[in-house]
Amino acid sequence: MALPHAKPLDVIDMRPLGPQLADAKTHSLIKTEKLQLVRIVLPAGHALPEHSLPGEVTVQCLEGEIELLTSTRSHQLQAEQVMLLPAAERHSVRALRDASLLMTVLLAP
């Protein structure tokens, strides 16, 4: 069963998952007409294949470490670091260590 999306004014706990990271799953936290927030969970060595999204995207590493590959270079993000990707930027993500991320996507201009 899918987890429900948060509603306006709901509080969402974004603390690191810690020991629960191994059993956690990726899920969408919020989705509106213009915005989507997704908590992505990636075990070490796992990856999201190259893709692009039509709107701007932020990727915030909540815990662990990832490699974010863009069309121009490789970026390593560790806990408490965030990066903005321009609209339509092709990218992929690979976990260097077990990681959870907060991805924010602007769906409509």
What's this, in brief?
This protein is an all-beta fold and 109 residues long. Helices cover 0% and strands 53% of the residues.
What this model shows, in words?
With 109 residues, the protein is an all-beta fold. Strands 1, 2, 3, 4, 5, 6 and 7 form a seven-stranded antiparallel β-sheet that branches. It has strands spanning 27-31, 35-42, 47-51, 57-70, 74-78, 81-85, 91-106. The chain is built from no helices and seven strands. It has one domain: Jelly Rolls (Sandwich).
Feature tags:
109 residues, mainly beta, Jelly Rolls, seven-stranded antiparallel β-sheet, 7 strands, 53% strand, globular
Instruction: Using the coordinates above, name the CATH class.
Output: Mainly Beta
> What's the quaternary structure here?
single chain
- Poorly predicted residue ranges: none
Total DSSP E strands: 7
- What is the count of distinct domains? 1
Q: Can you tell me the CATH architecture?
A: Sandwich
Write the layout of secondary structure elements.
Layout: E1 27-31, E2 35-42, E3 47-51, E4 57-70, E5 74-78, E6 81-85, E7 91-106
Antiparallel strand pairs: 1-2, 2-7, 3-7, 4-5, 4-6, 4-7
